Amino acid sequence: MPDPISANQVAIESGTSLGKDAWLRLKKNKFAVLGLFFFIFVTLLCFITPLIPGLLADPDSTDLPNRGLPPGEGGFLMGSDSLGRDLFSRIIYGGRVSLGVGFLATLVSLTIGTVYGSVSAYVGGRTDSIMMRIVDILYALPFMIIVIILTTFFGNELWLLFLAIGAVEWLTMSRIVRGQVLSLKKQEFVEAARSLGLSHANIIFRHILPNTVGPVIVYTTLTVPAVMLLESVLSFLGLGVQPPAASWGSLIKEGADHMRTSPWLLAFPSLFFSLSIFSLNAVGDGLRDALDVRASKD
């Protein structure tokens, strides 16, 4: 009779969660990790630095005798603009606006698009067709004309950026969620939830939507830079943040107006903006690969 196998002789493999497994795969993508840490650094720099007293100059304080100074002169780390304002301080404060618009508008897009797409796919039938035709109509509306009309009636207010951007950015999110829910609502776990008598809202929000988190997270990381780019375009055209407030888009516009005499006014805001967009896109690509179920078999 063979000896009983002791516990020490049995190799027990500990289980791992989907999130932990995805993080382990993401860490292998050095480019995505570098982009993640860079974006976290820029975000903390823009939101934490202004809270430290005496560290930054007043971004709206003019100093005409020291206007147009190049980087490093007159105590200006990145130079001064045409009104003698510290460019570095304006970039930091402008980053709070650009990143804030990116985060909040993406949150609105995520909320509306997720709920709209999931309900449309789950109900199905004629309701799904009508809801998707509404999305098609909204896709066809000229976005710039809507923004011009809103600014004409209500003025150039920051909340209009959220309203205008939120009116279009949720459309693609709703289509992505709808496609995921269509493939999930016939699965066995959904049928089991129905057999237990759970409500439709409970099935959607507690059983179906958690299984769409992978594609939703990936698209969210790609929506933030898209919203930031859209805000910058609007500010560049004079439809976004108005002086004396600044965003990266409005700073790039000011730099473009003085690029021949003061090229640093264009170079530094463009550098902050482009590297932030680039790092977020790298994170999005890395998350797409990390959350791919087929990659876990490699």
Structure description:
This protein has 11 helices and no strands. The protein has helices spanning 18-28, 30-48, 87-123, 125-140, 143-154, 158-184, 188-195, 200-208, 213-236, 248-257, 264-290. By secondary structure, the chain is mainly alpha-helical. Helix 6 (158-184) packs antiparallel against helix 9. It is elongated.
Tell me the layout of helices and strands.
Elements: H1 18-28, H2 30-48, H3 87-123, H4 125-140, H5 143-154, H6 158-184, H7 188-195, H8 200-208, H9 213-236, H10 248-257, H11 264-290
Helix pairs in contact: 1-11, 2-3, 2-11, 3-4, 3-6, 3-9, 3-10, 3-11, 4-6, 5-6, 6-9, 7-8, 9-10, 9-11, 10-11
What structural keywords apply?
298 residues; 67% helix; elongated; mainly alpha; single chain
User: What Rg, in angstroms, do the CA atoms define?
Assistant: 25 Å
- Structural class comes to mainly alpha
Arithmetic mean of pLDDT: 81
Q: State the shape.
A: elongated
Order of helices and strands: HHHHHHHHHHH
- State the total count of DSSP E strands: 0
Strand content: under 5%
Distance between the termini: 41 Å
Number of helical regions = 11
Biggest sheet statistics: none
Poorly predicted spans: 9-13
